[in-house]
Amino acid sequence: MHTLTANEAKTQFGDMLLKVQREPVQINRNGKPVAVVVSVKDYQQLEAMKLQLLQAKIQRGRSESDAGLTVDGDTFFNDLMEQYKE
Question: How many Cβ atoms from other residues are within 10 Å of residue 9's Cβ?
Fold first, then answer.
């Protein structure tokens, strides 16, 4: 992943837009990561993956619910976000 400072991202915005077509670009401010810029294609793929994971969790939850195994909402979404991070 390419990394830019916030100032570089501002002054090299056009170049950054070209870079994100190849790979995500991390933006750092004061040496700390604050954002990641991705292409529309990558963003759409991430959103589609999140939807698939959510649908799979819902389907699994229905099966578990039918079997008497349930999980609370906080646990469900925490598990979902952990899978998303991987």
Answer: 20
Would the pTM of this model clear 0.70, i.e. be above it?
no
Q: Are 22 and 57 in contact (CB under 8 A)?
A: no
52 or 68: which leads in pLDDT = 52
**Using one digit for the tens of pLDDT, what is the confidence trace for 38-58?**
999 999 999 999 899 888 888
- How far is the C-alpha of 35 from the C-alpha of 25, rounded, in Å? 8
CA dist 83 → 15, 19, 56, 74 (Å): 32, 27, 12, 14
Tokens at 36, concatenated: 């990641």
